[in-house]
TrEMBL record:
Record's protein name: Germin-like protein
Main subcellular location of this protein, as a coarse class: secreted
Residues that, per the record, bind oxalate: 111, 116
A Pfam family this chain is assigned to: Cupin_1
Entry coiled-coil feature ranges: none
Record key words, sorted: Apoplast, Disulfide bond, Manganese, Metal-binding, Secreted, Signal
Length: 225
């Protein structure tokens, strides 16, 4: 038993640098600009050669103007995740800009891999999230200059309360926080309508109507809700 215990300790000593090498890679470097030509790993993208880095790698103007409008929500979305801004690789940072037109909405959705803090640049909107343990709702009317935080993985939303376009910027604790939009997950999937009806208690006729409304789709790559 003593010999086996010593062997186990020895194996841990030998393997621990290998097990932690990917997550520790960025700790021994000041930055790691993503090489998007290579596949991502659980620890992020491989690094662009340091000798090829320039100041332009650390500059991004993609949030200076509204992104494309996502139907049917009437909200325009622009993203700064690692796929758009490779310098974010391994830094645990991401950002989005959302322009919510009058009557527009950012629907219920969740980011499984990052928390979000939202800053209102212009306009008035309602924002909130639902707690996972009690299903308590935490909602607030936000105005210019306000901040609101959405904890990681929780369903949250925003919608415009004013008569003009609301503009918000969000920062994330991940360079790729992930996204699942509830409407798309429920009604733009390939599950049969009778299955969706059974598991949601929504009538099959209403499920069919919503499936026709949303259509079968996958989430656009990089959609930064």
């Amino acid at each position: 038993m003593v010999a086996m215990a010593k062997m186990a300790v020895l194996l841990l000593v030998i393997l621990s640098p290998l097990l932690s090498s990917s997550s520790d890679a960025l700790k021994v470097q000041d930055f790691c600009i993503a090489n998007l030509l290579l596949p991502a790993t659980p620890a992020g993208y491989p690094c662009k050669p340091r000798a090829l880095a320039t100041a332009n790698d650390f500059y991004f103007r993609g949030l200076a103007s509204p992104g494309p409008t996502v139907p049917p929500f009437n909200a325009a979305l622009a993203s700064a995740y690692v796929a758009q801004f490779p310098a974010l690789n391994g830094l645990g940072l991401g950002a989005t800009r959302v322009d919510i037109a009058r009557g527009g909405v950012v629907p219920l959705h969740a980011h499984p891999d990052g928390s979000e803090i939202l800053f209102v640049l212009e306009g008035t909107l309602s924002a909130g999230f639902v707690g996972a343990e009690t299903n308590a709702a935490y909602t607030k009317t936000l105005n210019k200059g306000d901040l609101f935080v959405f904890p990681q993985g929780l369903l949250h939303y925003q919608y415009n309360l004013g008569n003009a376009t609301a503009v918000v910027f969000s920062a994330y604790s991940s360079s790729d926080p992930g996204l699942q939009v509830t409407d798309f997950a429920l009604f733009a999937n390939l599950l049969p309508a009778d299955v969706v009806s059974k598991v949601t208690f929504i009538t099959e006729a209403e499920v069919m109507r919503l499936k026709r409304f949303f259509g079968i789709r996958s989430l656009p790559t990089g959609l930064p809700i």
